[in-house]
Structures are given as structure tokens and as C-alpha cells.
Design a protein that fits this description.
It is found in: Membrane. InterPro entries: BphY/WalK/GraS-like (IPR050351), HAMP_dom (IPR003660), HATPase_C_sf (IPR036890), HATPase_dom (IPR003594), His_kinase_dom (IPR005467), HisK_dim/P_dom (IPR003661), HisK_dim/P_sf (IPR036097), PAS (IPR000014). Its main location: membrane. The protein has about 600 residues and is of the alpha+beta class. It has helices at about 5-60, 70-80, 90-115, 130-200, 215-235, 235-255, 275-280, 295, 300-305, 315-320, 365-400, 405-440, 450-460, 465-470, 490-505, 565-575, and strands at about 260-265, 270-275, 325-330, 330-345, 350-365, 445-450, 475, 485-490, 510-520, 525-530, 575-580, 590-595. Helix 1 (about 5-60) packs antiparallel against helix 4 (about 130-200), helix 2 (about 70-80) runs antiparallel to helix 3 and helix 15 (about 490-505) packs antiparallel against helix 16 (about 565-575). The protein is flat, with a radius of gyration of 43 Å.
Length: about 600
Amino acid sequence: MNLKTKITTGFLAMLLLVLSIGGYAYYSLRQLDRSSRDVLKANLYSIELGQRMLKSLDQLARKPLADTAGTAAFVAALQEESRNVTEPGEQQVVSDLQRLTQQLQQHQRQAQGATKAGQASQLGIEAEPYQLGGLTYQMMALNTDALNRKTEAANLRADQANRNLLLFATLAVLLGLALVGSVPEAAVQPLRKLTAALDHATERNFSASIPQESHDEFGQVARAFNRMLGQLREYRTSTAAELITERNRAASIVNTLDEGLLLLDENRTILLANPVLCELLGMPPEKLLGRPAATVRLENDLFQAMLRPLDAPNREAAVAEAPLLHISQRGEEAFYQLAVQDLVSFNEATEKTEFVGHILTLRNVSDFKKLDQVKSNFLATVSHELKTPLSSINLNTRLLQDERLPADERQRITGYIRHETQRLQRMVAELLDVSRLDAGAGIQLDVQPTNLADVVSFATTTVQPQLHDKQLRLEFHQPPRLPEVRADVEKTTWVLINLLANAIRYSPVGAALTVRVAVAGAFVRVSVQDHGPGIAPEHHDRIFQRFAQLPDKTGYRGGSGLGLSIAREFIATQGGRLWVESELGSGSTFSFTLPVVA
């Protein structure tokens, strides 16, 4: 066993024992704390409530019919006690108290409605406060017994914990003494031997080695020292080899870069071109290295474009304004950005900084270009989607200004304006939701037990004007008894309205839409089925991505491409799942699930 293992094993044993003592102490304190908290909450609070109830009964015993304030105070304390029942038999006592309290309140109400002075004394309720007092004492006795029993159990646990902690502490002291006696000696003895051997080596006698007497860390140090002596002997003859090794290492780093790199000297002679650049230029290294850049630029258009900023009067501005280089690579279009950096070196002879060449790099920015294209497409789509309803609203508003229009025509035009306004509101809401998610604000939910039948009813009522416009039939199926689910009503309604709006948008005139609600294990499943053109299986995941748009056979591209993405995030945050089942030509069924209230 080596020295490190010995020391590590000893300290690990000590650490394990200390952690055991600390863990056991923490566990014992937590148990005692939990027991005391349980007693305070379960028993002492019930006793305190019993005292308040007895105080109210004392006041009530003097005027059992007229003292409604005493009855109200008793009822308030009894309600608190009913929520703090913890002991066997306590629930029965509380139930009897509630029954007698209800009788007393009923008699008081009858007494207040009596018209003759003698009628109140005939109700026979004088004994009820005393019965309530007896039951209250019984409830307090149950909690007092439980309090004594739990206190005695806590004392026993504390005594046992003290004995165990004393035992652990004794073991820790013994183990610590053993480590103090063995670990320092095991660490110092090899160092003494190493110091004696090093004294011989300081005489520059590199042939004197350290004897290797063990296989522990000291033996490893001895072997390393002996190797160092051999390296010192070979130092003068190995300098050139080390320089070559370092050069090869630097070349390896350059060759593994994922950017194209070109190195020119002060005369613009090509000193280095890594494999990425050679592949982009379509030229092997032997046709580049050592040749003047002015000659190579005549043979290669890409090389010509790379050198063009070097000839500009303001090179920095030329590099900044240079367009992205469009290069076809392995059958795919790629975009590269050019960067130019001067190389300077300090000349110790002249004590001046001198220019020694250029470094030109080509960085692949295709991913950024794609993101920029997605942004441009999104802005164009949003602009189109905003322009269309705004133009429709403007036109219909002008029509409404014509006083010759009949009332039914005005009503129809008003419906169109409302529909387009809702469309604008939905788009703006989607953009706001996306901006909040991108800003890291997350989704704020108000999850509570919800009846999905009410959600479905509200959502279908909301889209009725759209159904009427396209002459669509809405069919609804749900079981007679539907369990409640844990959901945010507002966001779940938004998801269902969005799914219905998509189904209406893609359904042919006169078709049927079907909404189904069914129990699926621990979830409730809601489905919206249409008879539209359908979606190819390879696009099922893509339609839930942001800004995704799939053109149909008529060329219509849909909305902003955000609705389904936001809907999936809403459902997933509530613990459910949103997916689609569809094939081309067979319509689509969008479904989501929400967990049933446990």
C-alpha cells in the first residue's frame, strides 16, 4: 500500500466517523424538533382551543338563549379544533360537540323568534352548555394524555441519543490518537531518506542516483529523479529535437482548427495554409506554400476575394464592409466571414516593433446566416399577417360609413371587423408570450382544479362566428362523468381556441369538426379532429417549432408560426403533453392531456 493510500484511508475513516457523529446528532435533533413541533401543533393548540371553548361556555351558561356572542366564539374555536384532530377518539368528541352546538344554535334562533316571554324557558336547553363543557373537558383530556405520552417518548429518545453520541465521540478520540501516532512518521521517514540522497546529487554528479527501495510515492519520486538525471545528460543533444517537436505541435494545432487560416509574410509570400483553407480554395498545400500571393490570386477567385481588403486604402473599413463569402462545400451552401490581422514582432536589436506579415481567417457563419434568414422570414410573415387584417378592417370601416347600408349588412360587416380584430389580438398575444419566454420570465400559471367541460364550452362558443362563416358543423363527445384536472383555465382555454382556429382555417366548407374529451388513465385527453389536407408524418415535430410554416397545396402559409409552439409549452408546463396524429389527405387530430386531480 502506498503512502497516499495509507494517509487517505486514515483521514477517510476519521471523516466518516465525524460525519456519522454529525449526521446522527443532526438526525436526533431533527427528530426531537419535529416531535416538539408536532406536540405544539397537535396537542397544545387543541388544549388552548379547549380553554377558549370553556371560557365561552362559562359566559354562555349564564344566558344560554340570549348570549349569541358566546355561542359564536365557541363555534369559532370548535371549527379550529375540527381542523386539528390528531388523536384517536378525538374526532368522535368533536362530532358530538358540533351536533350539540347546532342544537344550541337552533334553540337560540327559536328563542329569538318567540313573541311571549314564557316561551323561551320551555325549550329546555339549559343543560346543553353543561354537556358541551363535559365534552370539551374530554377533548382536552385526550390531548393532555397524548402530550404526556409524547413528552415521555421524546425524553427516552434524547437519553438514547446522548449515549450513542458519547460512544461515537470515544471512538473518534481513539481513532484520532492512532492517526497522530502513525501518519506523521509514515510521511516524514521517506522524506529523510530523500533528503540524504539529494545531498549527494547536488554535487553535480549526475551519475549518482537515488536507491529505489519501495514502490510507494517515495519510490516514484526516486524513479522520477533518476530519469531527470538522464535527461540532463542528454539536454545538450536534445535541444534541436525538442524544437522540432514544438513546431510539430504548433502545426498540429493549426491543422485542427475549424477555420480556414492563411499566413503571409511581410512580402505576401504564403507561409502556411491549413487543411480547411486548402479545401475551401480547392488547391493542395504544395501549390500554395512558398508562392507569392500575387501569383496565386490570379488562379483562384476565392483567394482573390480574400486579398482584396489588403489593397484597400482603409483596410479595416474594407474588411468590415466586405460581404460574406458564399462557398459551396460538399454539396451544401456555406457562408464564411473574412478576418484580417497584422503580425508584429519586437526586434531586440533595434528595440522597435516591426511588421512581419498577415493572418487571414475564414470563419463559417452559416448558422448565423440561417438564423438571420429565419428572422427575415418571420418579419415578412408578421408584416403580411398584420397587413391583411388591417386592410380588411380599413375597408369594412369605410363601408360602415355608408348610411345607405341595411342593418343586416352592417351587422355582417361588424362581424368581419371583430374577426380580424381577434386575429390581430391573437398574433400580438403570441408575440408577447414569446418575448417573455425568450427573456427568461417563464410561464406564470394559476393551476387549480378545473372542469374541462366548462373550458370546452367556452372555447367552442368563442369560435362560433368562425364556424358559421365556413358553414362547419361542430360535434362534441364527452363521458357523462368527467373528473377535474389540474390546469390553468386561461391558458388551457387559449390552447383549445388555438387548436379550433387552426382546424377551422384548414377545414373545407361544410365539413365537420369533432371535439372529444375522454379519461386516459391519470389524465384527461382533449382532441380536436378536422377533415383538412392533413400533415405529412415527417412534419409532425416541425409544426411545433417556432416560426415553422408548412405551405399547403393552395400555397397558404398560415399564421405567424408561433401558436402551436406556445400551446405545447403551456401544456407541458402544466404536466401534460400536446401532439398531432395526421397523414396527408386524411385530416388531422390534435390532442393534449392534463393530469387528473389526485
